[in-house]
Amino acid sequence: MSSRARYSTAGPSTARTPAPPSSSVNPAYQPLAHPLNETGLRDLRNLRNQNHLRKLQEHVRQAVDSLTDAAALMNERSSTANDNYQKRKKKLERDGKEPTEDDEKSGEHVKKLKQDVETMTGGIEAAVRQTIDAEQTVKFMEDSLETANSRVSVNAAAAQSQTQRSQRRQRGMDDGEDMPDFDPTLPGTAPATQVVVPSNLFRQRIESDRNRYQALSHYTRYGQNNHYIGFKKAVHESSHPTDSIAPPLPNAKTWFSEAGPPPPGVTNDDSDDDIAIASEKISTKCPLTLQELKEPVKSRLCPHSYEKKAMIDLIRQGGVHTVQCPVTGCAKMLTEHDLVHDASLTRKIKRIQQARNDVMSDDEEDSRMPESVDSGDDIDDVDDATDVQRPRKKSVAPKMEQTLRPRRNAGGGGSIPIYEYDETYA
After folding, report:
1. Staple 234 to which of 72, 75, 246, 351, CB 3.0 to 4.6 Å?
2. In terms of Cα–Cα distance, which of 266, 251, 214 is closest to 408?
């Protein structure tokens, strides 16, 4: 059986050189020669009505919240480490003992940690300001789109009206009627409509708004911004994590100077007249469930906190999706969008709850101790007491109550209502 050899008729293979990448260059922009037609106007309206800018606005707000939480957590840990070191140092002094080498290293570590945290907090504060500027830019973009839509619509309507007049004039000429010569001074006559370019309007409006915004003082740009106030407040409170009531937050006008903002917790003037935001009074119970807060959320519109699930269930029921703040005396109407998670608030509530549990535990421990007549001696440690024991001290768990009172900025200017609410122990 013969076999046939199959020969390839293809020529020798040659390596193909790849074609050079084509460089795509956008053509030069050509301005509008005529006003936008109905299709162009509809596209411009759709651009304004899209949610891209709203989503960007929400991302900016989330960025501010994340920066605030990071700064608060850093300062809280630094302050807690310093408080623990100071307690250890005082105990050694009270016991008449010299600090060990480890104690000295701990002191150096705490000092360096504080310096690093202050430096990083300054960087985060600068980022918060930039984010607030970005938020304003988004608002300028929204306003510019609105201006462009309005002006272009008016321009298109004027052009259409002029076109209709020209068409009527042309039909009259075709019918043999004698049409008067065009006179721009006569009522009802006008020159050709000038074309309004939307992109030019957009850029001009944004540039104007930016220049006006950048000319404002730092106090006006940031000191009256709720996000920036929240940042300063969170850093201030986290600098006093073990205090039952943090010192008042200095007036916003003391936050800024020609040399830059003062360090966290430092004020240019400690007079009482500069105090605008008093120390807070926080309730650890939800106004709806009357139970201890486990997953608290705060309102953007008022200084109140709620249990997340209970408040969301209240908002969603009935299909209204808007409810009045459940705290007595507060008339703010809230939606689910107005509820935000506050990590700093959550940590502070947990500290208050832990402190209360510690007091209750100490009270139970003291109740098991035998009572005896006090000898009048100071005994710092129960374990050191041999023949004489201290009388049992009755401890009462602090009861947290909440009151709210609006307060005006004492420094004048802006007159932003600032709500103050303090921790009160009964």
Report:
1. 72
2. 251
Q: How far apart are CA 346 and CA 238, in angstroms?
A: 12
d(CA 256, CA 224): 12
Confidence of residue 200 (pLDDT cuts 50, 70, 90): confident
Top mean pLDDT of 178-192, 220-234, 262-276 is at 220-234
DSSP-assigned states of every residue in 342-399? -HHHHHHHHHHHHHHHHHHHHHHHHHTSPP----S---S-GGG-SS--PPPPP--PPP
Q: How far apart are CA 78 and CA 66, in angstroms?
A: 19
Is the distance from CB of 360 to CB of 397 less than 8 angstroms? Answer: yes
Angle subtended by helix axes 52-95 and 226-238, to nearest 10? 20
What CA–CA distance (Å, rounded) separates 139 from 384?
67
What does the pLDDT look like over 32-71, one tens digit per residue? Answer: 777 777 787 788 788 777 778 888 888 998 899 899 999 9
133 neighbors 191 (Cβ within 8 angstroms): no
- Only one residue has tokens 């013969």, namely 2
Q: How far apart are CA 292 and CA 346, in angstroms?
A: 12
d(CA 33, CA 297): 54
Kindly report the length of the chain: 426
What does the pLDDT read at residue 167? 60
**Nearest residue to 351 via CA among 115, 85, 87, 77:** 77
Specify the residue for token string 């150096």: 108
Retrieve residue 111's tokens. Answer: 């000092």
Q: HSE, CB side, 13 Å, CA atoms: give it for residue 409.
A: 16
- Which pair of structure tokens corresponds to residue 182? 């065009």
Close Cβ partners of 315 (under 8 Å, ≥ 6 residues apart): 321, 322, 323, 334, 335, 336
Q: What residues contact 109, with CB distance under 8 A and at least 6 apart?
A: 81
- 79 or 388, higher pLDDT: 79
At 302, give phi and psi (nearest 5°): -145, 160
